[in-house]
DNA sequence: GGAGATGATTGAAG
DNA sequence: CTTCAATCATCTCC
């Protein structure tokens, strides 16, 4: 029977003696020396434990209150807190400092770049802006496409934000609820603030995984929209004849160095009603295609060279009209030509044709 | 429908 | 950053 002293010890150690909420016989038992009396006490306690589930809620509350008011309770509670703190810290050691999820970062970056998350950029996205620049001067149908794109993107944005708000609200509500529960429970069992913090972070992690799904689907929607839009952008239009003539004229009149400066590009872009990027593209394509097959472009080169020569001659004779050297109106121009210039044109044409 | 022309895109190089 | 070179996707002409 060496269990008996231990039980007794534990009984006194836990310190229920003098507790106002405990039955008198239990309090007496702590200081008692009578073996039978002690046995009786233990029997009573066991009986109480066994019947505790049968007690009414009010009775249980009374016992809870009694326990809370016990004089040894704070000391015991602190000890338990310390033990718990150590345990929790050792558990946390392995879990903490986890790096941010790269996939989530990617999704966040993409949503930000597309203008879905973050501040609204007037509905404009990188794709819309790029396409707007690339399609330059293409006209009303393109701006209609852009507005369509913007409208759809804004729709996605709205849904995303509504859902995100819902998730955040639900997360906050749930977190508050759990925290209240834990605070309430912390009065009867040791729950450290760190433990609450950990619980909150667990909840946040769970909700952020739900949020990630939302972000994933939003990204997919944007990608689909964007790919459709970019496909539409690929439906290019050839530049109009006048624009091509302006570009060709510049190209062949600068054949020794067909690299227009930024200013020249801007001017050409303005004249052709296209973007500077399109001018750059055009010159890039032209240079490479010309170089690849000079023979094929010879006739074209001769024609533009002749035209340039005529323009130059024209400019010298009509000094005041020289401010538009690169875009002659062929029909009008020919009509204005004197016999002398017509001869000159023919000379240049044939000269360059046989060179 | 096919061939060639043409504007745009992409990746490498400087 | 610009330019080159290759390539793609579409347009235009026959």
Automatic annotation (TrEMBL):
<keyword id="KW-0804">Transcription</keyword>
<dbReference type="InterPro" id="IPR050224">
    <property type="entry name" value="TALE_homeobox"/>
</dbReference>
<dbReference type="InterPro" id="IPR008422">
    <property type="entry name" value="KN_HD"/>
</dbReference>
<keyword id="KW-0217">Developmental protein</keyword>
<protein>
    <recommendedName>
        <fullName>Pre-B-cell leukemia transcription factor 1</fullName>
    </recommendedName>
</protein>
<feature type="domain" description="Homeobox">
    <location>
        <begin position="230"/>
        <end position="293"/>
    </location>
</feature>
<dbReference type="InterPro" id="IPR009057">
    <property type="entry name" value="Homeodomain-like_sf"/>
</dbReference>
<dbReference type="GO" id="GO:0043565">
    <property type="term" value="F:sequence-specific DNA binding"/>
</dbReference>
<feature type="domain" description="PBC">
    <location>
        <begin position="37"/>
        <end position="231"/>
    </location>
</feature>
<keyword id="KW-0221">Differentiation</keyword>
<dbReference type="GO" id="GO:0005667">
    <property type="term" value="C:transcription regulator complex"/>
</dbReference>
<feature type="DNA-binding region" description="Homeobox">
    <location>
        <begin position="232"/>
        <end position="294"/>
    </location>
</feature>
<dbReference type="InterPro" id="IPR005542">
    <property type="entry name" value="PBX_PBC_dom"/>
</dbReference>
<feature type="region of interest" description="Disordered">
    <location>
        <begin position="1"/>
        <end position="40"/>
    </location>
</feature>
<keyword id="KW-0805">Transcription regulation</keyword>
<keyword id="KW-0539">Nucleus</keyword>
<dbReference type="GO" id="GO:0005634">
    <property type="term" value="C:nucleus"/>
</dbReference>
<dbReference type="InterPro" id="IPR017970">
    <property type="entry name" value="Homeobox_CS"/>
</dbReference>
<dbReference type="Pfam" id="PF05920">
    <property type="entry name" value="Homeobox_KN"/>
</dbReference>
<keyword id="KW-0371">Homeobox</keyword>
<dbReference type="InterPro" id="IPR001356">
    <property type="entry name" value="HD"/>
</dbReference>
<comment type="similarity">
    <text>Belongs to the TALE/PBX homeobox family.</text>
</comment>
<dbReference type="Pfam" id="PF03792">
    <property type="entry name" value="PBC"/>
</dbReference>
<keyword id="KW-0010">Activator</keyword>
<dbReference type="GO" id="GO:0030154">
    <property type="term" value="P:cell differentiation"/>
</dbReference>
<dbReference type="GO" id="GO:0000981">
    <property type="term" value="F:DNA-binding transcription factor activity, RNA polymerase II-specific"/>
</dbReference>
<keyword id="KW-0238">DNA-binding</keyword>
């Amino acid at each position: 029977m060496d269990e008996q002293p231990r039980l007794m010890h534990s009984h006194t150690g836990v310190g229920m003696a003098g507790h106002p909420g405990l039955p008198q016989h239990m309090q007496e038992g702590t200081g008692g020396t009578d073996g039978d009396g002690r046995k009786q006490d233990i029997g009573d306690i066991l009986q109480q434990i066994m019947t505790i589930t049968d007690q009414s809620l009010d009775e249980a509350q009374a016992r809870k209150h009694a326990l809370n008011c016990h004089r040894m309770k704070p000391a015991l509670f602190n000890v338990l807190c310390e033990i718990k703190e150590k345990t929790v810290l050792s558990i946390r050691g392995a879990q903490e400092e986890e790096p941010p999820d790269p996939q989530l970062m990617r999704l966040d970056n993409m949503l930000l770049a597309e203008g879905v998350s973050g501040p609204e950029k007037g509905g404009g996205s990188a794709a819309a802006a790029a396409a707007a620049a690339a399609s330059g001067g293409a006209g009303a149908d393109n701006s209609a496409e852009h507005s369509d794109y913007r409208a759809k993107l804004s729709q996605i944005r709205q849904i995303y934000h509504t859902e995100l708000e819902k998730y955040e609200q639900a997360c906050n509500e749930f977190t508050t609820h759990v925290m209240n529960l834990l605070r309430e429970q912390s009065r009867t069992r040791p729950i450290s603030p760190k433990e609450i913090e950990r619980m909150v972070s667990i909840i946040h992690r769970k909700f952020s995984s739900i949020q990630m799904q939302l972000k994933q689907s939003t990204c997919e929607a944007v990608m689909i929209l964007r790919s459709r839009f970019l496909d539409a952008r690929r439906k290019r239009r050839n530049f109009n004849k006048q624009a091509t003539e302006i570009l060709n004229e510049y190209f062949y009149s600068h054949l020794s160095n067909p690299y227009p400066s930024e200013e020249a590009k801007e001017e050409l872009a303005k004249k052709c009603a296209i973007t500077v990027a399109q001018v750059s593209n055009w010159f890039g394509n032209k240079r490479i295609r010309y170089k690849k097959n000079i023979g094929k472009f010879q006739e074209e080169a001769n024609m533009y060279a002749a035209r340039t020569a005529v323009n130059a001659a024209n400019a010298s004779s009509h000094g005041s009209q020289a401010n538009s050297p690169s875009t002659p109106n062929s029909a009008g121009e020919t009509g204005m030509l004197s016999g002398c210039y017509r001869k000159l044109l023919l000379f240049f044409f044939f000269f360059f044709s046989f060179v």
